[in-house]
Amino acid sequence: MRRLLAAAIGLVLLGSTACQGVPEAPLLAVAKLAPDFETYQVRRVGLMPIPASGLESVEERQLLDDFTASVRSEFARSTPYEWVSLSELDVAEVPISDPMRTGNYQAATLITLARRFSLDGLLFVSLIDQHPYPPQRLSAAVELVAADTGQVIWNAAVQLDGSDARVRTGLEAYYGGLHEDSTDWHVALLSPRRFADFAAWQLAQLL
Questions:
Q1: Cis peptide before 26 (omega within 30 of 0)
Q2: Dist. CA 174–CA 177, nearest whole Å
């Protein structure tokens, strides 16, 4: 709840920036917080590798790697937690079965990774759809799972379309001052990595 309040305050601050020529960044992602979220002591979170099943081309794998990097950087920059990026090698010996699709988080997976990397939670990310050519599209979902109970304590989703006016307004605000490397926002309409950065930022604002 405190992150949702902080996001609201951030929008007020962005509104004051808008009068100086930079538009307000609309929050396009949606999120749900578990009622008992505040009872969990979350300090260190593991970022699970995004499932790559079905991706055959080099281009598809590169898009997945770019989105993974975007999630890692934006969540580290926008949330109060310590983030640990887990590679496919890190999780090679534990059972993973695309839990965001099956709805089943195996206890052995959570316990093994939590102990090995001293984690309080794990963030599972799913890249649902990505069209890297103008107008770009990107849809993604994330779930934060408590390492000690296996319960989903926060989840969020975002669906962006480069032809949408609200998405363009958001990109203009994000690259007009919110992003650490401000640049012409129109570049993001052509660059899959910059478009992915904005999508990851949208998700991170609600945690």
A1: no
A2: 6
Closest Cα partner for 109 from 99, 156, 34? 99
pLDDT of residue 16: 38
Q: Which residue has the higher pLDDT, 105 or 207?
A: 207
Query: pTM here?
Result: 0.84
DSSP 40: S
pLDDT tens-digit map of 60-98: 788 888 899 999 999 999 999 999 999 989 988 887 756
Dihedral sign from CA coordinates of 53, 55, 61, 67: negative
DSSP states along 141-179: EEEEEETTT--EEEEEEEEEETT-HHHHHHHHHIIIIIS
Strands of the chain, DSSP E: 30-33, 44-47, 82-85, 121-131, 137-146, 152-161
Strands 152-161 and 30-33: antiparallel
Q: CB atoms < 10 A from the CB of 192, how many?
A: 20
Ramachandran angles phi, psi of 127, nearest 5°: -90, 105
What integer is the mean pLDDT of 28-47?
Answer: 96
Of 177, 196, 185, nearest to 136 by C-alpha is: 196
The CA R_g of the chain, rounded to the nearest whole Å, is: 17
Sheet containing 137-146: give its strands across: 30-33, 152-161, 137-146, 121-131, 44-47, 82-85
Q: Report residue 196 as tokens.
A: 């992915």
Q: CA 61, CA 192: separation in Å to the nearest integer?
A: 13
